[in-house]
Amino acid sequence: MASPDTLEFTEANFDSTALSGSEPVLVDFWAEWCGPCRAIAPMIDELATAYSGKAKVGKVDIDSNQGLAVKYGVQAIPTLMLLKDGEVVQKWVGMVQKPVLEEALASASG
After folding, report:
1. Please, which contacts does 49-53 make with residues 24 or more away whose CB atoms are closer than 8 Å?
2. Residue 14: helix, strand or coil by DSSP?
3. What angle do CA 69, 67, 47 make, to 5 degrees?
4. Could you write out the DSSP letters of every residue in 37-56?
5. Residue 104: CA atoms inside 13 Å, Cβ hemisphere, count?
6. What is the pTM (predicted TM-score) of this model?
7. pLDDT value at position 21?
8. Within 10 Å of residue 10's Cβ, how many Cβ atoms?
9. 43-95 pLDDT, tens digit each
10. Contact 16, 68 (CB under 8 A)
11. N or C: which end of the chain has fewer CB within 10 A?
């Protein structure tokens, strides 16, 4: 079960949730049929809980939100992006280790 802290980003709410505010935003572009995406899902939920109040952590289902995937140039999943002030500051494609994301979130959170 997803963490209540994990946001669901959609084309309808992306600008108002992911791009608003000053905190960094970790976005996980994923799909239900993607095995590696499902494998990292618990880690994304853990990060959402750990960084609650310091950063936003959420997911974009690329099947339901193809426009966002195109806008951000997502060509393979999972793709994770760290946004700061609405700009992509870091991007990872494929499986990524939790300490890598923790370090990126910590440095972006100030």
Report:
1. 49/3, 49/5, 50/102, 51/26, 51/105, 51/109, 52/5
2. helix
3. 45
4. HHHHHHHHHHHHHHTTTT-E
5. 23
6. 0.95
7. 86
8. 17
9. 999 999 999 999 999 999 999 999 999 999 999 999 999 999 999 999 999 99
10. no
11. N
User: Measured on CA atoms in the order 31, 17, 72, 42, is the torsion positive or negative?
Assistant: negative
Q: Parallel, antiparallel, or unpaired: how do β-strands 79-84 and 25-30 relate?
A: antiparallel
Show the tokens assigned to 93: 């494609």
Q: Token pair for residue 25?
A: 């935003």
> What domains can be seen in the chain, in order of their start residue?
7-109 (3.40.30.10)
Active site residue ranges: 34, 37
Centroid of chain to Cα 41:
10
